[in-house]
Design a protein that fits this description.
The chain has nine helices and 15 strands. The chain has 328 residues and is of the alpha/beta class.
């Protein structure tokens, strides 16, 4: 039985708490939250002990689930790792690159498991592609959300776009050669909408647009590769593949098109998407990594790499702001 403590029981922390209660092999020891009013409500609702000192709770557990605001991630992660505890931490894994670098070193030295909460890895629309050969050469992403003051302590890059950065790095598996980016701060002091172009050494190009001031929600990724187009709708949980018809595709709907090379036959495949609770899936995967002593699905290295690209994007945007101001 894994003894677990939750650090931060705000909006997302409560989702984690509800899911941990349904996961076998885990005993919830208690939670830490500095907000007395919220803590009292949670303690009463869940009949779970509140600890006012995170160090006290840390000594009683095997694993920590850190769902506190981003600026507290490193302090709590450091406390957990130095105490020899496994860690699940929400994205981004730290507030600064210096903190992320230190955390990487601590985890390597300690040998504990650390998983970063990039929940879209567990979206059923993405999981539906697990057996399909993906070799992207062009990727287009739109992640749009309506404005919500919660989470605005970080930019839209670290709040929303980092999900897609993680997915793209996972798919492309090549170093980033060049980044160009622009963004605008509309409702907050950091970018609320941004457009980014990432160019990879293997020739792949990814265009990403993220906004947290949209009138509608959208979470779509379009992947283009030789002989195929793959559409992933993370919000509607749907996946579509349009490809040149090949062996084994006789059961798929197909049609002919005229091309300069002659008539070609396309096939449409809609992989089975099995609905799931993505948060529960990622937390269960963290439990399994501890029990089976296996690599976490989203390791500290992958969390670091996504964060590193996100901060490069932020630097590009800040530089463009500085140039614009100097020209006034």
């Amino acid at each position: 039985m894994i003894k677990l403590g939750i650090f931060g029981v705000g909006h997302l922390g409560k989702f984690h708490l509800n899911n941990w209660k349904e996961i076998e092999g885990v005993e919830l020891v208690g939670f830490y939250d500095p907000d007395d009013v919220n803590a009292a409500k949670v303690a009463e609702q869940y009949q779970l002990r509140r600890y006012a000192d995170p160090a006290e709770l840390m000594q009683l557990i095997d694993a920590a689930d850190i769902v506190a605001p981003t600026n507290h991630h490193f302090t709590l992660c450091e406390l957990a790792v130095r105490s020899g505890k496994h860690v699940f931490v929400e994205k981004p894994m730290a507030d600064t690159m210096a903190e992320a670098t230190s955390l990487m070193k601590l985890v390597k030295e300690s040998g504990v498991k650390l998983q970063v909460g990039h929940v879209e890895r567990f979206n059923p629309a993405f999981i539906a592609l697990k057996d399909y050969h993906l070799h992207p050469m062009f990727i287009e992403v739109h992640r749009l959300a309506q404005f919500n003051p919660r989470g605005t302590e970080v930019s839209v890059i670290l709040d929303l776009m980092i999900h897609d950065i993680d997915i793209i790095l996972h798919l492309v598996k090549s170093d980033v050669k060049h980044i160009s980016a622009s963004g605008v701060a509309v409702m907050t002091e950091t970018p609320d909408i941004a457009n980014v172009r990432m160019e990879f050494n293997n020739g792949c190009v990814a265009n990403l647009t993220s906004s947290r001031i949209s009138m509608k929600k959208m979470r779509k990724m379009r992947v283009f590769q030789k002989d195929a187009y793959i559409g992933i709708d993370f919000l509607a949980k749907k996946t579509e593949i349009i490809k040149l018809k090949g062996e084994g595709d006789d059961n798929l709907f197909s049609f002919d098109i005229e091309t300069p090379q002659g008539v070609r036959t396309l096939a449409i495949d809609n992989p089975a998407v099995e609905d799931n609770n993505a948060i529960r899936s990622e937390l269960t995967a963290f439990r399994d990594a501890i029990v089976n002593n296996t690599r976490t699905v989203v390791s500290e290295r992958e969390g670091y790499e996504a964060m590193h690209i996100a901060h490069q994007i932020l630097e590009k945007i800040e530089n463009s702001f500085a140039v614009a101001k100097s020209s006034l």
